Amino acid sequence: MTVLEDLPIRDELRGQSPYGAPQLDVPVRLNTNENPYPLPEELVARIAERVAEAARGLNRYPDRDAVELRTRLAAYLTRTCGYAVNADGVWAANGSNEVLQQLLQAFGGPGRTALGFDPSYSMHALIARGTGTDWVSGSRREDFTVDVDAARREIARHRPHVVFVCSPNNPTGTAVEADTVVAVYDAAQRAARGKGALVVVDEAYGEFSHHPSLLPLLRDRPNLVLSRTMSKAFGAAGLRLGYLAADPAVVDAVQLVRLPYHLSAVTQATALAALEHTDTLLGYVERLKSERDRLVTELRAAGCEVTASDANFVQFGRFDGEGGAHAVWQALLEHGVLVRDNGVPGRLRVTAGTPEENDAFLDAVRAVMKENE
Ligand code: PMP
Fold it and tell me: Which metal ions or organic cofactors does this protein require, according to UniProt (predicted)?
């Protein structure tokens, strides 16, 4: 039998594991930052209608440039983020993971370096590896905020071609101040060779933040990119639709690496239907934000150390006893609740679910804390 290690794969992939949270069949699943609310029935019906329309033309390739969708996404950003963008400054792909991959294909690659501030979204490093880009793990303060002075030093030392700033940050929930992004951007341009460095703000959880979007920072910063997704706020993780906003020149750059017709007609039709129901979906976001705030308050009341959160999840701990955070992860699982162990020492991450799911989670935490007394 042939195993992976027998294959002539690239050396840097040898011994690596694929990304993936466990997909376990558990009553309360709060481990992948999904939106717990299924799409409303009116939207399901509208998707069926728009997809049927698209199906009539499936003998043809889809609109390669997804112009209608990019126009609608631009209108959504303009309306909700306080800064006007046009379709030529917006690009869409199959999930923001694909957006990030296209950015690294165009701006990273062999002989180039990307830097992020860890702990952060582990796919940034994995996509870097997959595109042959060297990865540098920058630091955060003890409280998981980005330390501007340390960031400036790390950027000056490594002179990265791409810098990732995740805000709100996964897995910690930490928002990054606009001033910090500006400082990182300026430092990256100063340190860079040639034409500067790309700074990617990953705002996958932007809609859940207490702070406004960082989109207005795009003004006069042609090397800044804001990445977003319909997986979280739009409750459409299964749709696979991510997008970016940037200077139109950045959109021209990703077109050099995107596969032709990468966004299927079915995907485009579904995303357009979901955008028609933006206000209803943003109503669920408001509910989730207040549930997130409740989780923070109640976890603190239960004696946990909780990181302030601007996302639809909460990092909590500290579990420094025997077995560390993983033992608590296991104990919660035994109570029927699946959370995430992201490998941050002493900490776990829980996604805000429905009020009932959050109650079940909080009961399980209290029970486990009692067992551990
Ligand atoms: N960025 C961050 C910070 C994320 O947490 C995720 C999903 N977990 C993504 C990007 C990718 O999401 P998607 O590909 O579903 O848009």
Answer: pyridoxal 5'-phosphate
CA of residue 11 relative to chain centroid, distance: 28
Is 312 touching ligand 1 by the criterion CB < 6 Å? no
Two structure tokens written together for 209: 């933040």
ipTM of the prediction = 0.99
pTM (2 d.p.) = 0.96
Q: What backbone phi and psi angles, to 5 degrees, belong to 246?
A: -170, 180
Query: Which residues have C-beta within 8 Å of that of residue 282, sequence separation ≥ 6?
Result: 80, 207, 233
* Both tokens assigned to 342: 């992201």
CB of 119 closer than 6 A to ligand 1? no
CATH match of 21-38+279-371 with 3.90.1150.10 = yes
What is the assigned CATH class of domain 41-276?
A: alpha beta
Q: How far is CA 29 from the centre of its chain?
A: 18
Tokens 């029935």, residue located: 41
Q: What distance in Å separates the CA atoms of residue 72 and residue 90, rounded to the nearest whole number?
A: 10
- Which residue is closest in CA terms to ligand 1's atom 5? 170
- Parallel, antiparallel or unpaired: strands 198-202 and 224-229: parallel
pLDDT averaged per 10 residues in sequence order, the chain, 373 residues: 92 83 87 95 98 98 97 98 97 98 98 98 95 97 97 98 98 98 98 94 98 98 98 97 98 97 98 98 97 98 97 96 92 96 96 98 95 81
CA of 204 to the centre of ligand 1 (A): 6
Please name the residue that has the structure tokens 């501030």. 117
